[in-house]
UniProtKB/TrEMBL annotation:
It comes from Rhizophagus irregularis (strain DAOM 197198w). Gene3D superfamilies: Tetratricopeptide repeat domain. Transmembrane segments: none annotated. This is HCP-like protein.
């Protein structure tokens, strides 16, 4: 359920939801694990100034 709402908000440009959605893809929570999609979403959120995404990209 959360995956659905994170995706909806991320599509509207909400960087926090992009990060949450990236975590879902990264960990396979609510969806299939997809590291490429997780990386893409971390990157998009980081471009919008989301600090946790920047940190996760640096790992």
């Amino acid at each position: 359920m959360a995956f659905y709402w994170f995706k909806k908000a991320a599509e509207k440009g909400h960087e926090g939801s992009m990060y949450d959605l990236a975590l879902c893809y990264h960990n396979g929570e609510g969806t299939e694990k997809d590291l490429k999609m997780a990386f893409y979403l971390y990157q998009k959120a980081a471009e919008k100034g989301h600090k946790e995404s920047m940190y996760d990209l640096a790992l």
